[in-house]
Queue: 3 jobs
Job 1
Amino acid sequence: MAGAATAASVVLGGFFLLLLTIPAALAYSIAGSGNGPFIAGLNELAWAGFVMTSFLRAMLIMAGSFGLWRAKLISDALFAAEVAAVVLVLLGGTTWTSGGFWAPFCAYSRFVSPLIGLVWVAVVNRMLLTRTPATRAAW
C-alpha cells in the first residue's frame, strides 16, 4: 500500500503543478493573443484536469486507509468512514455537467470534494499523533 500511496501522491503533485501552469499561462501571455476559442479550450482543459484529480485524491485516501486498517492502527468504524470518504471524493470525478452544483467549476468539485480530502488528512494526522508509541519490554 505504501507504493500506491507514494505513486498517487507523486502523480497528484505533478498533475496539480500542470493545472497551475495552464491558468498562469492564460493569465500571463496567452489571453492577450485574442484567440478566443483556443483560450476557452485551455480553460476547459484545466477544469477537466481538476475533475480528474478526484481519482488521484481518492487513490491517496484509499491507499492510506487500507494500509492503516491492515496494520490495525485504525478501527473498523474509522475504516468504514474512510471508505465513505473515498466514495465521496470519487463523486467529484462525475462532475461533467455544464452548470449547477455538479459542474466542474461549481461547488462540489471545487469545495466539497477537496474539503473531504483535507478532513481525512486532519483526522488521520490527529489519530496518529495522539497514539502512544509502543514500548519494547526487552531487546
Job 2
Amino acid sequence: MAILSFLNMLSNDVAIDLGTATTLVYIKGKGIVIHEPSIVAINKATNKIEAIGKEAKEMFGRTPGNIITIRPMKDGVIADFDITEKMLTYFIKKACNRHLWLRPCIVIGIPSGITQVEKRAVKDSAIKTKASEVYLIEEPMAAAIGAGLPITEPSGNIIVDIGGGTTEVAVISMAGIVYGQSIRVAGNEMDMAIAQYIKKKYNLLIGEKTAEEIKIKIGTAYPLEQNLSMEIKGRDLVEGIPKTLVINDTEVREALSETIATIVDTIKMVLERTPPELAADFVDKGLILTGGGSLLLNLDKRLREETGIPVSYAEKPVEAVVIGAGILLQDTNLLKRIAID
C-alpha cells in the first residue's frame, strides 16, 4: 500500500482542453500548467516540426516559403491526426517536466456534437502519448463543473461554452445533458467575418492575428455607451501596397452580426426544447457563459435581452473546461459516471 500511495503522489494525471484555438493542460495537484495556442510550425523541406504553441504563433503569417504554420484542430476536432499527436505529446511532456515514465490518466474535453470517428481520433492521439487510461468528457459538462454548477442535483443548469471552433449549449441536470446543441460557429468564425468585412468594404487584406485583435479590442455584440475605434494595417488589394485605416465598433458589430445571430438562435432553440420543470430553474439561476469567445464585449447584455433570463460569466471563463476536467481527476466515481465512449 505504501508503494501505491507513493506512486499516486508521483502520478502526473492530466486534464486537457484540446481546443481549436488554444490547448490548456491541467496537472493533478498543480493546476493549469500549459495555456498555449494550438498551432504548429512545420518545415516543408524536411517535414520537421520547427515550433509548437506560443513560438509557432509568433511565426504565424511571417514564415518563409519552406515553413508553414498550421492549426491541427479544426472546428473542435482533429484535422491532422499526426500533427495533433505530436502537439499533444509535446504539451504533456512539457507539463510533466518531460518525465513520462509513470503513464498518466488523461481526461480530455471534446465537443458534444462530434462523431464516433472523431472521438476515436482524439482517444487514439492521447493513447499514443503513453497514457494509461483516457476518458473523454463533453465540453459543456466539463465547463459546468469548472464553473461550479451543481450538476449532480435534480435542477436545471444551462451553460453556453463559446470556444475557438465550436459553441456548445447544454441543459444539465443530475450529471447528464438533458438537451444540448453543438454548432461549429465560434471565435474563429468571428475572426473570419471581420477579415471578410474589411476586405469587402475597404479592399484591405488583413491577417488572422489582426482580425483577432480587432475582435478583442473593439468587437461588440450590443451597442456600447461610448464608441471605440482602432487603427489597423493591411495590404491594399487595388494598389498592392501596405495601408493603414481606422475602423470603429459599429462596423465590427455589423461584421459580426450574422455569427452572433447564429449563436443566439441556437441558445433560443435549446431553451424552447427544454422541459418546463427545468426551464423554470433558469428564471432564478440564469445562463452561465464560458469559453474565450464568450468574452466578446456586451455579449451578456445581448443574450439577456434576447432570452429574458439572467446571464453571468463563470469565474474563469477561458479555463472552465480544463478546470472541470481537472476536478474530475480527483473524483473517479463522477468521472466514470459522465465519461462518454
Job 3
Amino acid sequence: MPHDPVQHDHARHNHPTEPHLHADDDGRQVVGIHDLQVGYQGRPILPPISVCLHEGELWALVGRNGAGKSTFMRTLLRLQDRIGGRVQLDANVRVAYVAQRSDHQARVPGTVVDFVEGGLDVNWSFMRPWLSRRQKETVQQALNDVDLADLADRQMGTLSHGQRQRAHIARALATDPELLVLDEPTSAMDPINERAVFGLLQRLARRRQIAVLLSSHHMSFLPDYADHALLVDRDLGIAIGGGLRKVFWSESFRRVYGDIHFGVPADDGCAH
C-alpha cells in the first residue's frame, strides 16, 4: 500500500521516534492509518502512528488515563482535524461508534427494540416513516447477536448496566458496520460484565467479519480477547501498534507498565 509523503517535525514534536509495528495482512483491509499525527492547535501529542485494521480483527487501544486514546479515536472518526499523515477509509465503508456511557444514558426512554431501531434514523423520512423488511431483519439480527432478543420489549430504564451497554452495541450493529469503534465500553463495569462485553466484541469481530477497535485502560482481561493492540502514551512519547505479543513485549510497553505483561506469552524475538 503506497504511503503519502509526510514530513515529520520531530523537533517540534519533541518525542522520540517509535518503531511502527504493522498487523499481518490477513483479510480485507478496512482502514489504513499512515503516519497519522494527532493533537491540538497544530501541535502533535503523539508520535506518528501507522497501523492497518483488517476485517475480523479486534484491536485494543490501550494506555493510561490521559494518554491520548480519545484524541486518536476522535481523529480517526474525523471528529477532530489531524495534524499530519493520512487515514485511508473509503467513503462507502460503514463506521459505527459507541461513545463512553454517561449517567444520562441510563434514563433513555422507550423499549430496547425502539432504541436499537433509532440507530437507523439516518435513513428515516416522512415519505417512508416505517422500517423496511430488510431493516427489521437487521435490527432483529443485532438483538440476536448481543443476546437481547428476549428483552426487546423491555423498557431501557429497567436494564442492568451490562444489558444497557449491549443495547448500545446493538444500536451500532443495526447500521451493519464494517468498522465498529467503542470508547471505554466497559467503564465502571464489574469484572463479570466486563469480561462478557469483551467476549461479545470478540465474537462479533469474527462472526460478522468486521474490524473492532475499543479503547480501555483496564488491562486485566484484554489479552484474552484482543489479537492486536495500539499503545499510546503522550507523556512518554509512545505510539506503537501491531500484534498483541509484539506490543506487550516491546520496550515501549515496558516503559509504561514495567515488567507486567498481563498474561501475554513472549513470542520468539519479542521478549527482552
